[in-house]
């Protein structure tokens, strides 16, 4: 079958995405998986990554849910500017995000001095890693939830309220089921982004083993001395991302 220029260009575009992934999977020494996972620093980095990414998602949900509600359900001056600021970390260079966090929460930052007065020192701590991950990952949850709020049938909420349902009952039985696909997709994307965060974390939290060294930072360090094992750890992280995306696709198809 002869391909036209557009399908051919599409295949070339696919190759741009597929070849690096195939190269990574091909270079990874899969036979050393058990040995790699047996290393204390790798297990520590994996455990810390799970803690940091999960805490970042929890923080993103606690702050992002009401923010998405505000953006979707209220009209006010400056809403477009607020939305721009919220989505900016999605395209901001990660190192710039880390520097911005230092400018806000560092010792000489906007809030750094006030935090140190009450005994909180954020930079180069596990909490800093959580904050860095939440900063770059929360926009994925906020934008997904905002879309879900826009798509929800508000007339059902109005009918339920007219029938005497409390706000909590309307939220739990009408709104939440309506936005569940958007919420699930947003949480999955947020968690995957937090799990893979590197630039903002290394700038704001550092690369301290057992304290701030997550899997991406461990990959970077191992790459300096043992590229093959770094390829393997990167491939394992890629596999986790594939599972997240596959689960997300299944959720969307089911919805």
Question: Class, according to the CATH hierarchy?
Answer: Mainly Alpha
Enumerate how many helices there are, as a single number: 12
CATH fold descriptor: MetI-like fold
Mean pLDDT: 88
Low-confidence stretches: none
CATH H-level homologous superfamily name: MetI-like
Largest sheet: none
Name the beta content range.
Answer: under 5%
CATH architecture: Orthogonal Bundle
Helical proportion, percent range? over 70%
Structural class: mainly alpha
Task: Based on Cα principal axes, name the global outline.
Answer: globular
- Whole-Å distance between the termini? 36 Å
SSE sequence, one letter per element: HHHHHHHHHHHH
Number of domains: 1
CA radius of gyration:
21 Å
* Total beta strands: 0
Topology:
Blueprint: H1 5-27, H2 33-37, H3 40-73, H4 79-87, H5 94-105, H6 112-117, H7 126-151, H8 154-162, H9 167-195, H10 199-204, H11 215-223, H12 227-254
Helix pairs in contact: 1-12, 3-7, 3-9, 7-9, 8-9, 9-12, 11-12
Please give a structural write-up:
The protein is mainly α and 255 residues long. It has one domain (36-90, 124-254): MetI-like (MetI-like fold), CATH 1.10.3720.10. It is 77% helix and 0% strand. It is built from twelve helices and no strands. It has helices at residues 5-27, 33-37, 40-73, 79-87, 94-105, 112-117, 126-151, 154-162, 167-195, 199-204, 215-223, 227-254. Helix 3 crosses helix 9 (167-195) and helix 8 (154-162) packs antiparallel against helix 9. The longest helix is centred in the N-terminal third of the chain and has 34 residues, at 40-73. The two termini are 36 Å apart. The model has no long low-confidence stretch (mean pLDDT 88).
């Amino acid at each position: 079958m002869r391909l036209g220029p557009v399908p051919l260009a599409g295949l070339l575009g696919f190759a741009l995405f597929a070849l690096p992934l195939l190269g990574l999977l091909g270079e990874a020494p899969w036979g050393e998986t058990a040995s790699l996972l047996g290393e204390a620093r790798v297990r520590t980095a994996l455990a810390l990554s799970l803690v940091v990414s999960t805490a970042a998602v929890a923080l993103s949900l606690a702050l992002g849910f009401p923010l998405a509600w505000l953006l979707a359900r209220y009209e006010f001056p400056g809403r477009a500017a607020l939305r721009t600021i919220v989505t900016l970390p999605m395209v901001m260079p990660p190192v710039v995000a880390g520097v911005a966090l230092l400018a806000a929460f560092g010792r000489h930052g906007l809030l750094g001095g006030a935090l140190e007065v009450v005994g909180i020192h954020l930079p180069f701590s596990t909490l800093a890693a959580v904050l860095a991950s939440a900063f770059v990952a929360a926009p994925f949850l906020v934008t997904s939830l905002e879309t879900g709020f826009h798509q929800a049938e508000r007339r059902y909420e109005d009918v339920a309220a007219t029938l005497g349902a409390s706000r909590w009952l309307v939220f739990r039985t009408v709104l939440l089921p309506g936005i569940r696909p958007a919420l699930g997709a947003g949480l999955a994307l947020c968690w995957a982004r937090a799990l893979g965060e590197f630039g903002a974390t290394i700038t704001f939290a550092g690369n301290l083993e057992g304290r701030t060294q997550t899997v991406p930072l461990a990959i970077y360090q191992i790459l300096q001395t043992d590229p093959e094992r770094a390829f393997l750890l990167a491939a394992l992280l890629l596999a986790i991302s594939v599972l997240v995306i596959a689960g997300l696709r299944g959720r969307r198809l089911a919805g």
